[in-house]
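[step 3/7] fold_predict: job queued, chain A
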Amino acid sequence: MGAMNGEHIESILKTAQASMDTEGWWSLPDGGTVTLYVCHGGASLTVSRVEALRTDGELLFGRTIKREVYAFARVDLFAIAVDASAGQPRRAGFS
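[step 4/7] structure written:
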């Protein structure tokens, strides 16, 4: 699989039941967050507890629960993990 495109990101967010606000930010229901996995030139970066995402052309913006905003080239994003929402406790062990 090549770089993620807008359709990939939108499909992941729709599967996670995210909705878009009037400013173009996608947010998960019930305080849910995502973790972004980004890699460029052999260096990787993981940004966790992202509460909202927005795309603008080839850029992807992620806003964390601390209101920090990260900007990435969309082609450098290789994975998005949907985290447990605030209303769903994490389970220890296997389910």
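[step 5/7] annotate
The radius of gyration is 13 Å.
The beta strands are 19-20, 26-27, 34-40, 43-56, 59-64, 69-73, 77-82.
exit 0
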